[in-house]
Design goal:
Elements (H helix, E strand, L loop, with lengths): L1 H13 L6 E17 L12 E14 L6 E10 L12 E3 L2 E4 L2 E11 L5 E8 L18 E8 L5 E11 L16 E2 L6 E8 L5 E10 L3 E12 L2 E12 L5 E12 L2 E10 L32 E11 L4 E10 L4 E13 L2 E12 L5 E11 L1
Amino acid sequence: MKKVALSLVAISVLSSAAFAGSVKYSGDAKLFYSAVNSGGQNFNKKENNLFDMAGSLKSEIKIDNSFNPVINWGLTAVSNFNSKSGSWITHQASPSDASNKDAIWLDTLNLTFNPFANTTMIIGRQQLDTPMVFSEQWNIAPNTYDSVVLANTYFPKTTLVAAYVDKSNTGGLTVNYYSEESSFKDFGTKDGAYAFGIVNKSLADTTLQAWAFDVVHAAKVGWLQADTKYMGLDYGIQLATRNPNTGDTGTASAVKVAGSINGIGLSAAYSTVSKDGQDFVNVGGAQSKLYTDAWWMVGTVAASDTKAYTLTASYDFDVVNSSLYYTHSKTAEIVTKETTLTFDKSFGKLDTSLALVNVQKDATASDNEIQAYLTYHF
């Protein structure tokens, strides 16, 4: 029924088009590498390291029509050239074969149009960005969703959002592509998930958000967030609740403050998650939208029964931009400390980044990583 509905909408919009418009292409090529010194082992042990290359091609086709239809499609390909190293994104030959194989998949295919005044509808495979269902950008290939999104801006400085998510290849480090079967699986349960949101900017320098998520037969999540600027400082507060179909209701809260002194960007954030067995990571994914989420150990601050704080500092030198991140998270069982120092520099269309990461868990030997990121845009 969902596929039939999508086809009918697409046909009704495109059938009246004059097939005049414009076509735009874009893309990028990426190389990500991480050398890991884990538990005192040598950096050059390939099995501990991560290596992946990826390329993407995107196209935007605009059609002259009263509905303003736009067709977006995109391909992503990944390979680690049969390296013995691990990979950012799992591209196994099959669920039972852990060896990485070259892979290519359609990560974007959607129709965007305006069915009514002040209303935009997106139907098909796309990236999403909501507090509990979103495409994770830290990975070499962001996860995408087969979904329907409706956004309305009838009320001044207010956006109303309604969405249904059917399938996804979500999972952060475990975004899978199998040559034997599609990696786009039913989202949450076989009945998918619904999301409803209100984003309001009526107050000066302030964004207010309220979201409700229903992962059918699994859990209902509510998320409130307020971000504002006052006297040169940025403030934020987040409140969330997760009510599973079975189990206890969990809650999460976070606050942050950020500003700059003599060109040095500074921020501090604190979060707490109740000990009810509920987490507040991206549904089916790895990352969290809580202010305290770590740079590398994503999602750890959002686990059940966790208190965490994050401190950051950044400075733009003439030759390079540098940032320092420190995240401390504590549960009843373990304390995790992450310290990350990054250096970023762009050379025209080439973005480069170097990250030095140290992760300490309780009294165990720390993990040290040297990560290099290259992205060329075309």
